[in-house]
Amino acid sequence: MSSTGGWVACQTADGLEYYYNESTGESTWDKPAELMTDDENIAGDWTWFPCEEYGYVVAKLKYEYNDGTKVVETLDGQELTLKLTKKDRTFPCTAISSLKKLMPDLVQMEDVNEATICHNLKERAKKEVIYTNIGDILISINPYKMLPIYTSSVMEEYWNGDIEKLPPHVFTISSCCFRKLFETKQNQSVLISGESGAGKTEATKVVLQFLAEIAGSVTGVEQKMLLANPILEAFGNAKTLRNNNSSRFGKWMEIHFDNNSKIIGCKIINYLLEKSRVTKQAENERNYHAFYQLIAGATDAQREELGLGDAEYYYYLSQSGCIAIPGTDDAKEFHEMTTALDRLDFEPHYKNDIIRITAALLHLGNIEFAPDAKGSGSVVKNQDALESSAALLQVASFMLQQELTIRQFQASASRSTTYQIPLTPLQAADARDALVQSIYGNLFNWLVSKINSSLQIGVTGNSKIVGVLDIFGFEIFEKNSFEQLCINFANEKLQQHFNSHTFKKEEQVYKDEQIKYSHVEFIDNQIVLELMEKKPNGLLVLLDEEIVLPKGSDASFLQKLNQNHEKHERYKILRTSNVNFCIIHYAGEVTYCVTNFLDKNKDTIPEGIIDVMETSGSPLMQLIFPSRKGPSTGASAASPAESAGRGRGRGRGAAAGGPGAGAGAAAAAPAGGKTNRKASLGSQFREQLNDLMATLNPTEPHYIRCIKPNQNKRPASEDFHGGMVLRQLRYAGVFEAVQIRQTGYPFRLTHLDFWKRYRLLAPQVKGANNKEMCQQILKSLSKDMSAVQVGLTKVLWRSPQHRDMELLRSVVVEKQTLIIQGGLRGARAREVYARVNAVRQQLRSAISARNLDQLNAAIAKIADVDFAPYEASVAEQLRDLIIEEQRVTKLLNEITNEIGNKTEVPTATLEKLKTIVSAADKINFQIPTANTARQQLQAIEIRIETKKQLNDGTRNHDEELLRKALAKVSELSIVEDDVVRAAKNELERIQKERAILEKLAHALSLKNLHPGVSISSTVGSKGEVTLTDAAVRDLQNSMNEAENFGCTTPQGIKMVETGRIVLALRDSIVAEDWERVSEILYDASSRQSNLLDAPEIKAAHTQIGLRAQKEEVQANLDQAATTFDQNTLAYEIERGNALEMDTAYYTDLYYQIVETQKMIADSINIVEQEKLDEAIQMADSFGYNLDDYQQAVQLRNTLVALAAEIDETLKLLETRPAAQSLFDRATQIGMHTEPLKKLGDILQLNEEGFIKLQLKAAIALQNHQRIIKHNVELKEIFFQQFANSFRLVDCGRIKTPAEFARGKLIGKDKVKAEMMNWQKSSIHGSLTRIEATLTLKDPNKEASIIFKNILGYMGDKPLNYPQMLAREVLQKGIDHKELRDEIYVQLLKQITNNPSSDSIAKGWKLIELAIECFPPSREFENFLEIYLRQLGESKAALRNKLHEIVYSGAKSAPPPADAIP
Asked: Which among 413, 303, 446, 416 is positioned nearest to 362, based on CA atoms?
């Protein structure tokens, strides 16, 4: 690490950079000037400037214009132009180093303001850290992607771990609620808020899942509680531009616990369902999920019964242009929703009515209206839509048509006179939409009530409560109407509660600790609440008054607002508009448009339509539209939705009035008469809010503020829009919370925790108690710590002191870390060495004992250590050697017994003997049997070779070979047979021939010139022969004798032929027929290799040669040399020599040609590549290229190609047929190399032996697919013999039923019997035998967590994020090989006797994913494969994947959660 001036760069354990001076001991977070580069060492002040894209950006001001425009330069040199207003705030950036410090708690940052908070959240989101605390408040950034942070093991960590030391999480809030509920005996609440798309619904699910999992219940109600989600989301959630699963209602859920910490029930209250969405959606949004789910998931019979078409057919679904949501399976969710209805005890007829009513609303939306004949009213254009909807609602179609097209009202005080006013097509469509909204709102309220009745079975007045509020966040749109007023009013109420609680809690800490502190100012928004609801002139109060006035209107309402609140500090009159007014909320100014305020607040539909609905024959319709003239015959009790259903709901409709009602707030109508005036929507909502606040105030609240990072639904790690996030933080009141905490002491630790964290700064400190030691530590520090407060139980301090203490601690930690790391590494090395050494000793013992069983046992232990010792390879080689010795010994015994004392055996037996002796030689096997076999082979081969020599000698008339072979016959006492007798006869004949040839040789002057022959050496007569009569007679007599005898030896044949030539020459010379002489000599020259050098022939040549001119000789020599004409060249050389010419070059060339031709002929004859190469090389050296050369090259190339093919085949050994074909082709041309012989030996092996060699070749080539293929083939052979040995019940890795049931106090017999059968409850321990390790301290606990995840993924237990659960199972299998068999066995258990086909399918999918991620143990591998094999070809692909993973080993990571189906 480079240093300048003693400064070096260091890192804390959290990865933060700081700087330490080795010379002075000084430390700092900020980079010293000595270490800065020229680019970094920039002077000047840095400032946080507002920027829409980033929220804030750190930059320096370069230019500023009068209109507020600023040109700034960022840290990375980028130049930005910013348009700032007077309201925009800038903040100084006091320390650049602080930008790198990402704090889990915003109030603990060194420099806290809007800019640093936004920066901190953005940088954490980039790292996919979505949760951040503000003290006790949790900020949740919607990640817009699946993260593995909600699994059973994470849940376990936050339940049993120290949540004070764990990162922020929804589970922290959940765990804290549950603990405090029983520690403090005070009811708890979780308030979740945020705008659409911020993740409120998901946060609610996670809280509920945690409480359900941790607490559980005796009755299983906690699972029912989770089953409410599919129903509520189907009917209450929809796709918006901001969110694919936006909750369009608020809800308060009370989870009730008994004194044993078990869940006994749940109660849900819903608020402000957006009923207008049923009839109208914005472009690219959707209606409620339930409609699309019904169309996608209904059976064919249901579709026919309900008259359903495609979604595009229905006006209520097609108007926005959006039908499907990418990644959403509406049919699957329909199945989940209907299953939830069943499991929550919805009666079949109610379930059927829910579906019929949902379909009816779609048909109602398709009713179209046209002007009537008079033009003043309207008629229904498409009667089929009317008839379908009326039939499904079980009302008369004519009555429905009449009420949709005609408005009836009573004018007189006695209401005895009824008037009818026809409705225009537009008014009729409006009446239709009002009816649909009313029916849907009432249906939703009834669903909530019905769910409550299923969840409240065990609820008592003494139960303890954890409430979860999932409610819409503050809203500011371009156009804000009555709905936004109600929502923002609710948020003002909750913000007041939030500020009050945060303020009181903060001051209470200081009081409890008895420290000095400045009073924290309470940020109170009571003035806004009074503006909205205080009598007599509150905004909502005036609105209720206006709707009862005969001439009340939106305009008159606005006029009264302006008159009454003109001077109110939070109200603004907008002089430029006659429909708008402005309220200054805590989150900012909001302009509201009063258009339709009165209509939305009335929330009514015509009485006539209600009358028609009351006539319905549907049991469910009778409940949600009960008769106002008496008890309904179709309902057993008062309607849960009584009188709430008459709301028209031109936007959001208020839901149940009062906690737990789940229905409308208005009073039920008295029997036998019409209803009293229905309460306005605003008054219902105010009453609900008051009830909610009354419920919340006694509880201890916990806050989750959900934030949406961007409008594009892109992952927060990639797209974080700072300006958008800042606005949400303001709306959520985050900055007020920070302000409250920052005015006090944001950093706090108990005395013990403070001492544990900072004791290393003063290890010498001692004290009587923890508090005293904390005080001593602070006094010993080199920095000023006077501002740190030491309270009764805690130490409290602010950011400057935190910055200094952390810096000092980092310096000491780095020094100590090096020491600790050294010790740990040493300990780890010693531990590894001990394990390896234990295996080494076992290997050595096995090697020494040379015992196969011991060797196999020792080798199996190698997999348990980090690396294999040297002895491992020795042991493996020895094991293979022993196995081979055993095999060869068996073969040797068989062959030696078979041969016995025989000296002649069949060819097949001989080849078998050769193969076995070769195998023994390869391993240098020196046992007596091996030596006997070698001796047998040698004796047999010598006899065979002797017989061959006898045959060759006889056939070739080879005297020397015959003498040698006959001597061997005598030596070996070979019995005389035809071959031996023929050889003796031939030898005798050759001896006679030799005597005759000696006479002929004398006559031909082959050794010495015959006395009767003289040859002239003079130039003029050079070569002239003079013969005596004796010489003539001797030659003639010798030739007659030789020809009569019939010479057959090569020498005899040559000599006789030579004699004929000499006789012919003598006759021609005597006759002076020189032409004939030339012919004879030419003929002799062409057959020179078959003649002997007779002097007279040479003399004749000399005589003829004298006749030729030297020029002719030279020309002929040149021509012969060019064409490699051996005969001509030889002839012309002789002539040249006779003429005393220099023929050395031609002579050499001649002999080269002769030698080359001989080598070519010999090499072609013996078919040897090496000899062919030598011959071709010699030919190439002087350019020889005659036909025999081409033949040799072709043969050589064929041999080379075959040799390469043989080598490649021996290397690859791909298929037996290909190898056999190659072997046949090679032997057919006479090839006889060692590799070919080896190939032949391999082809003699049986199928198993051949596959083993194929596997060995594949391993050497590292051919992944072939290794697997051949392993599979070997396993196929193996399993054919031993499949019955691998039943799951016999696997040593799996516990016995008795062993599994150990520790169960009750129900042991059932646990034993059902050990390997599907169950929907958790298991108490592992199914397999797992040893605890350093990294796996509690195997039973881990097994239980894995099983919970499997239950959740397979759908046997309702848990959120099933893909994450599956991914954690896979991750555990990858990380811990000890758990792999456990995972497989658990999955096999859960697909055994499982009543659900969907669950089984999920189980098999998880088995497939597991097989793709990690292999089972070697001990369990065959059991798993046999299990899969027994299921036939349907699992063949899984078996292939199993072989693949066994060979390749575990993957480094499982697939991402969003890739898991």
From this structure: 303
Question: CA quadruple 961, 966, 969, 970: dihedral positive or negative?
Answer: negative
Residue pair 58/46 in contact by the 8 Å Cβ criterion:
yes
pLDDT of residue 14: 60
Q: Residue 1109: is it exposed, middle or buried by C-beta count within 10 angstroms (0-12/13-18/19+)?
A: exposed
Of the pLDDT bands very low, low, confident and very high (cuts 50, 70, 90), residue 654 is low
Q: How large is the average pLDDT for residues 468-479?
A: 85
Counting every residue written for the chain, the total comes to 1461
Q: How far is residue 444's CA from residue 427's CA, in Å, rounded to a whole number?
A: 26
Tell me the pLDDT band of 340, cut-offs 50, 70 and 90: very high
Residue 644's pLDDT is: 37
1420: which 2 tokens? 């369990």
Assess contact for 529 and 539: CB atoms under 8 A.
no
Give me 77's structure tokens.
Answer: 């040199």
Nearest to 485 by CA among 682, 196, 236: 682
Q: Which tokens go with 786?
A: 């006077």
Alpha helix ranges (H) inside 60-144? 114-126
What was the pLDDT predicted at 415?
A: 53
pLDDT in tens, 695-717: 998 998 999 999 999 988 899 99
3-state secondary structure of 965: helix
CB neighbourhood size of 1206 (10 A): 22
Q: What are phi and psi of 591, to 5 degrees?
A: -100, 125
Alpha-carbon span 272 to 270, nearest angstrom: 7
Closest CA to 621 of 396, 457, 428, 313: 396
The pairing of strands 273-274 and 789-790 is unpaired
| pTM, full prediction | 0.65
CA 1311/CA 1307 separation, integer angstroms: 6
Task: Determine the longest span between alpha carbons in the chain, in angstroms.
Answer: 181
Dist. CA 1292–CA 1132, nearest whole Å = 94
Other Cβ atoms less than 10 A from the Cβ of 1415: the count is 23
Hey, what are 674's tokens?
């019409």
pLDDT per position as a tens digit, 1134-1165: 878 877 778 899 999 999 999 999 999 999 89
User: What is the DSSP code (8-state) at residue 59?
Assistant: E
What does the alpha-carbon distance between residue 929 and residue 823 come to, in Å, rounded to a whole number?
59
* Residue 1346 contacts residue 1381 (beta carbons within 8 Å): no
Measured CA to CA, the distance from residue 944 to residue 909 in angstroms comes to 14
